[in-house]
Design brief:
The protein is of the alpha/beta class. The chain contains 11 helices and 12 strands. The chain has a 7-stranded parallel sheet, sandwiched between helices. The protein has a 5-stranded parallel sheet with strand order 2-1-3-4-5. Helix 4 crosses helix 6.
């Protein structure tokens, strides 16, 4: 049987964690503290987390590298929402005897945000709503989705679903990733092309690859330069997949448009150049932020704590 005394829930931006999970099932002796802000200062973060023997991180909002974990001697149970968290050093935690667990998730809400960004950019919906509220009627001409070419970089679980929606809209779907085969592409109605051809042909490019050393900066200045004038690039995966200075330059020069839900630094600083770039649709990393997903996350966290206290941890993450 395990014991826990204090739980920290990190980065609860909306202040909803306690209302979306069955926390009353936990022992009254377990104190739960919720933090709504993200601390970037390492020393301040250590001092905040030092008293806790259990921590729940919401996705990658607060990374826990080895050098931070080593300074938390009280930590026994480390949890992340979702089934993996590349910003947690799981091996370092396990080496110190810390149990590391994930939670279930619900559906693929990032697909919704991807298409929201695409449709808003193609049909100029935000600007048209603003114009209408200001008393102006039909101030621009949008572009219909049907007949356009969708380029999908990464045809895994999310990329395949995004591709299926594109097919339903009547788009031609082309795809590329470093290990993609023609057979796998064809299975979801896509055509395998080279990376260079994808960026040159697509009216909309959307990224759905995991961030790693190999994929960091996978979209650079040369790729952006190949895109058609006014073509759209959408990133709902991870900000560092795109060379940020190159993207800012392309946007400022009016060569491309961008729909972005993820950034190289989050929360995005108010001084970030992307915020002043034209031809953009920007959202604050909402891909996984849905009622269904949050409910699965926080119910799963309660289950993980109950299992730890019973001496039988569940959904343990691999190192």
């Amino acid at each position: 049987m395990g014991t826990l005394t204090r739980l920290a829930i990190l980065d609860d931006y909306q202040g909803v964690a306690l209302s979306m999970g069955p926390w009353s099932r936990l022992p009254a002796t377990l104190q739960v503290d919720v933090f709504r802000d993200t601390l970037k200062d390492r020393e301040a973060l250590v001092q905040r987390l030092l008293p806790f023997d259990a921590i729940l991180g919401i996705r990658e909002r607060t990374p826990l590298p080895a050098e931070l974990i080593e300074r938390l001697p009280n930590l026994k149970l480390l949890m992340t929402t979702g089934e993996r968290n590349l910003s947690f050093n799981v091996a370092a935690a396990k080496a110190r005897g810390i149990t590391v667990c994930g939670t279930p998730s619900a559906g693929a809400p990032t697909v919704d945000i991807t298409w929201g960004l695409i449709l808003n950019l193609l049909r100029d919906i935000p600007a048209q709503q603003e114009a209408l509220r200001a008393g102006r009627w039909q101030t621009s001409v949008g572009t219909a989705v049907g007949g356009l070419t969708l380029g999908v970089v990464g045809l895994g679980k999310l990329g395949s679903r995004v591709a299926a929606v594109g097919k339903a809209f009547g788009m031609q779907v082309i795809a590329w990733s470093q290990n993609l085969t023609a057979e796998k592409a064809a299975a979801v109605g896509a055509e395998l092309v080279s990376k260079e051809e994808l960026f040159a042909r697509a009216d909309v490019v959307t990224l759905h690859v995991v961030l790693s050393d190999r994929s960091r900066g996978i979209v650079g200045a040369a790729d952006l330069a190949r895109m058609k004038p006014g073509a759209i690039i959408v990133n709902t995966s991870r900000g560092p997949l795109i060379d940020q200075p190159a993207l800012v330059a392309a946007l400022q020069e009016g060569r491309v448009r961008a729909g972005l839900d993820v950034y190289d630094e989050e929360p995005l600083p108010t001084s970030h150049p992307l915020l002043s770039c034209p031809n953009t649709m920007l959202t604050p990393h909402l891909g996984y932020v849905s009622t269904q997903n949050y409910t699965a996350y926080f119910h799963g966290a309660v289950e993980a704590i109950e299992a730890y206290l019973a001496g039988s941890p569940i959904r343990e993450l691999a190192s």
